[in-house]
Amino acid sequence: MNRFTYAFGLRIDRACLLVLAFAFLAVTIIGCTPSSIIPLGAKLQNADNAFDEAETTEVRDDDPEKMEKNRQRQQERYDKAMTLYLEVIERDTKGKYAQRAHYQIARIYKRRYDWDKATEHYQAIVALDPTGYYANEAKAGTANIRKNREVIKAKRAEYQNYKAIYDSTPTDETFNIAAEALYEVARAYESLENYTEAIRNYERLVEEFPEHSKAAQAQFQVGNIYFYTLFDYLGGWPAFVAVTEKFRDSYEASQAGTLLKKTADTLQEINELKDEIDKFRNKKAVEYQKTGRKITPADMWVMGYSDQVVQNFQQIAANWRNLRNYPRAINAYKTLARDLSHKKFAAADALYRTGELFQQNGDYERAIEAYDNLFELAPESTWRNEAVYQQAVCYRSIREFGAAYEAFKAYMSITKGDTPYLREAEQQVRQYELDQDEDGYKFYEEQEAGTSDQDASSHPGMGR
Q: How far apart are CA 299 and CA 285, in angstroms?
């Protein structure tokens, strides 16, 4: 072996070295960056992770200065997510990844109450694929923005007009019209996801029309927004307390009292479980990890307590799920699957639950990715068959009927005996294989192309 022969037995001659040198020079001249090397799917996942971090950032704090810093941190995370989504669009341009990136950017702009920018990205999706899943979502999003902005404009003017009349000449009619109009303004803001203005207008209704039949409902809804949309329990607590104090005899007051007790117990249990998890961490292993050393999941925990940690994570996730805080439930399951991967059954269960929660929350593509993680990391899982079926359902939901067809067939081939989903899968496959207009294209192909299986002149090959 000469000097170009390496220990593993690969001989590189001078010609190969010249090729490698020219390749390196080309890369240097072109300016290839790590960002452009990252696969699109991975880049999209990085963007989604940054979006998730922004969504779960704790903003509320008793200290105004800390609260402002938290808000800035959240906006920085949204900015990072948007930058990554824009990079996806730049590389993919007209593909499926670009559509999802546009959709997510629209969500960020909605968080910032910039409806015009959100609409621009919705329109970009429709231009890319007018009949696809994201196009349908974008059209609905655009219509929702337009409708609710018109409602706010009309009902705010109605509220101001009739409130002025009521203040000068009070009547039951002007009282009801003004209060109902204000309630509609609050609902429209809530539908637009402008929760700051929704809360402000619900609270205004309670303040100005405390005797109105919807006052208790408005106060209760303020608490609901804080608890179940913003996941801000400090903000929502006084809102629900106000229901019990201001509207003692209302149905909402009895509901609020029960809800507060359950939430207090649940949050306390979550904190206790977290504290116990920290107690079982192997402090020496954590220190090693900080120095850059590789630590196995089994070494992260005090010997003999991994099973207890698994149970704690599972209960934390279940508690967040009961509070309808799906982002934190998903985060708990992801952490379990990563940090306790040596507990094969529990890790596989956590991977499945992650997909299930994404699917339940209508985030079908992320559910598909989560189920793929299960297939890759835990192919022997008892959840495998059900995950195959649920992934088929997710593909159907995003109008990828070819993938849904294959997944339903796969479920049928791996399922033995009568299961809850077997008949449904068989029915779906039979329907997808129909060719009612006998044009040579099956029903699922027509569905995916947006053509008709009832008209032979309308088929996927029309534009070829």
A: 7
Separation CA 360–CA 152 (nearest Å): 31
Q: Quick check: helix, strand or coil at residue 251?
A: helix
CA distance 451 to 464: 14
- Burial letters 75-104, b for 16+ CB under 10 A, else e: bebbebbbebbebbbebbeeebbbbbbbbb
Nearest to 185 by CA among 154, 225, 219, 163: 154
Question: From CA 281, how far away is CA 301, in angstroms rounded?
Answer: 5
Q: Has residue 279 got a pLDDT over 70? A: yes
152-191 burial string, b = 16+ CB within 10 Å, else e?
A: beebbebbeebbebbeeeeeeebbbbbbbbbbbbbbbbbe
Cα–Cα dist 48/366, whole Å:
9
* Tokens 């109605």, residue located: 158
* Helix pair angle (344-360, 364-377), 10° resolution: 170
Please report the pLDDT score of residue 358 as a whole number.
96
Q: Tell me the sheet residues that pair with 11.
A: 5
Tell me how far apart the alpha carbons of residues 359 and 366 are, in angstroms, rounded to a whole number: 8
Residue of 331, 352, 347, 353 whose CA lies nearest to 52: 331
Structure-token pair, residue 281: 């961490």
Distance separating alpha carbons of residues 309 and 278, to the nearest angstrom: 9
Q: What is the pLDDT of residues 411-455, one digit of tens each?
A: 999 988 777 799 999 999 999 998 888 778 888 888 887 787 777
Strand, helix or coil for residue 5: strand
Tell me the CB-side half-sphere exposure of residue 418, using CA atoms within 13 A: 0
101: its two tokens: 């990136």
